[in-house]
Design goal:
mainly beta; seven-stranded mixed sheet; 1 helix
């Protein structure tokens, strides 16, 4: 039974930084693709960053220049370090995992397993 638990969200001032964590259990972490997604009020869930099975990072939009995705395989954890945050980054952030993606690595529809989300608010 795959479980993902996010943490690290909170309220931060514009220009600040946060590091989100996602710890997984119930699966062989090294065989899975891991992604970070977010959903703002009234908007669709969108991809932010992801790691392929070869540890290749993928980013969308401005996250490429402000966010870093990393992992600790020994802890079954993946992290999203976000810098220079602005109001448009306010959203619930989710991590997701899948062994065999059915589409783009940054598409929410490609993932089977999801965490419960952690709120990030930029004031």
């Amino acid at each position: 039974h795959v479980q993902l638990v996010e943490s690290g969200g909170g309220t931060v001032q514009a220009g600040g930084s946060l590091r989100l964590s996602c710890v997984g259990s119930g699966y062989a972490f090294v065989r899975y693709c891991m992604g970070w997604f977010r959903q703002a009020p009234g908007k669709e869930r969108e991809g932010v960053a992801a790691l392929g099975r070869a540890d290749t990072p993928y980013f969308t939009g401005s996250s490429k220049f402000r966010f870093t995705i990393s992992q600790d395989k020994a802890k079954n954890a993946v992290y999203l370090h976000m810098t220079n945050l602005n109001a448009e980054d306010t959203a619930i952030y989710y991590c997701a995992a899948d062994r065999r993606l059915t589409g783009s690595i940054l598409s929410p529809a490609s993932y089977t397993y999801w965490g419960q989300g952690t709120q990030v608010t930029v004031s």
